[in-house]
Write a structure and sequence with these properties.
Strand content: 5-15%
CATH class of the largest domain: Alpha Beta
Order of helices and strands: HHEHHHEHEHEHEHHEH
CATH superfamily of the largest domain: Isochorismatase-like
Radius of gyration: 20 Å
Number of strands: 6
Number of domains: 2
Structural class: alpha/beta
Distance between the termini: 66 Å
Helix content: 40-55%
Strand order of the largest sheet: 3-2-1-4-5-6
CATH topology of the largest domain: Rossmann fold
Shape: globular
CATH architecture of the largest domain: 3-Layer(aba) Sandwich
Length: 247
């Protein structure tokens, strides 16, 4: 009995030690070293830039949800950064996957008694298939060589879509994520991508939420557990460097 209790105490002590080490603040020097190492593995041939819901409802004045995200978008200059990311990533030969959300008229894909974010989408009839609000925003329209994931009518980009098929078909190992909302669809897609075994990179300057605080909180407290948080300039520099080495 004493021996058993001793082993339990040892196990608890070890658990506490591991948790403390995992949750301990990372020093700037260590963060920089970890980021540099992670970016070195970004090969354009194995990387997909996944763009979540760059549609008029969010991106464009007059969109039903634009006012809700406008401040956060402006704080990081996210639309301009995302547009540049899109073009630069295309130039490196990366896979580009657009991940829009859309609903049939009536939004029957959403439960009759929704709550939370989907309640607002249904009540406002946002992202209705075939309407202007569900169209891609002008700076983020797909090019002929881009791919478009089909079937997204929920929060996670993998659920009910062909995203995983497109990624595996292209032999993708790395996912670079930007879009809306930081702490909703981007986060849900990030977590599932992580669990599916992809190396996920999240772009702080290419995401937006319904408040600046929510956006910052997600990156400060959550994203480092399931992705490599970084910025679009860092990712593009790494992709270009890899391309030049292979040339």
């Amino acid at each position: 009995m004493v021996s058993s209790r001793f082993h339990i105490i040892q196990l608890l002590a070890l658990t506490v030690t591991v948790c403390r080490a995992f949750l301990a603040p990372t020093t700037p020097a260590r963060s920089s070293a970890l980021l540099s190492a992670a970016l070195e593995s970004l090969d354009p041939k194995e990387t997909a830039v996944v763009l979540v819901e760059y549609q008029n409802e969010f991106c464009t004045p007059g969109g039903k949800l634009h006012d809700a995200v406008k401040e956060s978008m402006e704080q990081t200059n996210m639309l301009e950064n995302s547009s540049k990311l899109l073009q630069d990533a295309r130039d490196t030969g990366c896979t580009i996957i657009h991940l829009p959300i859309a609903f049939e008229k009536g939004h029957n894909e959403i439960a009759d008694t929704p709550y939370g974010i989907l309640a607002g989408v249904k009540e406002g009839e946002a992202f209705t298939q075939g309407e202007w609000g569900a169209d891609f925003a002008a700076p983020m329209r797909p090019a002929p060589m881009d791919k478009i994931a089909k079937g997204k009518s929920g929060l996670c980009g993998f659920y009910s879509t062909n995203l995983d098929f497109l990624l595996r078909q292209g032999a993708v190992k790395n996912i670079v994520l930007g879009g809306f909302l930081t702490n909703c669809c981007v986060e849900s897609t990030m977590r599932t991508g992580y669990e599916h075994g992809y190396k996920v990179y999240t772009l702080e300057d290419c995401c937006a939420a319904t408040s600046v605080e929510a956006h910052k909180n997600a990156f400060a407290n959550d994203f480092g557990m399931f992705s490599v948080p970084t910025k679009s300039t860092e990712v593009i520099s790494a992709l270009k460097a890899s391309s030049s080495v292979q040339a």
